[in-house]
Write a structure and sequence with these properties.
Arc Repressor Mutant, subunit A; two-stranded parallel ribbon
Length: 143
């Protein structure tokens, strides 16, 4: 997933249940940069593809208003929906290697553990049976 697509998806999720106008999305994802609606449309398409939402059940287009991220409520007994595997491929598990918790003033420890996370991420990405979330994206999740 590209960084801007991830930023867009994160912003949509943080504002779940609220219709977000195109201008608001452009300002949130491309602050201080002039971006076209085509860039937003491409990111929306990429985000839908990344989360298996080709049916537009999660990221909904609200005509002449913008986009809405809406998660259907599930009951405790309901099974979570399975993401459809791509044609000819079985679904891969996805992992995110999160940063280690380090004391605020321990700069050496932070550098050491950030390097360890990078090495673990790189090593796991060599396997064809698992998808690894990019380090930058995983660190954003930990914030």
């Amino acid at each position: 997933m590209r960084p801007k697509t991830f930023d867009l998806l994160a912003f949509l999720i943080r504002n779940s249940g609220r219709v977000l106008g195109k201008d608001e999305l452009l300002q949130a994802v491309w602050p201080g940069i002039i971006a076209t609606e085509d860039s937003l449309t491409q990111c929306i398409r990429d985000a839908r593809k990344s989360i298996g939402d080709e049916a537009q059940a999660l990221i909904r287009t609200v005509p002449r208003r913008g986009y809405l991220f809406q998660v259907a409520e599930t009951r405790a007994n309901d099974q979570p929906p399975q993401m459809a595997p791509q044609a000819g491929r079985a679904a891969e598990p996805m992992v995110a290697i999160l940063p280690f918790s380090v004391e605020a003033g321990d700069t050496i420890g932070r550098v050491l553990f950030d390097g360890a996370v990078e090495e673990i991420t790189n090593a796991l990405s060599c396997f064809k049976t698992v998808a690894v979330l990019a380090r930058h994206s995983a660190f954003v999740l930990a914030e």
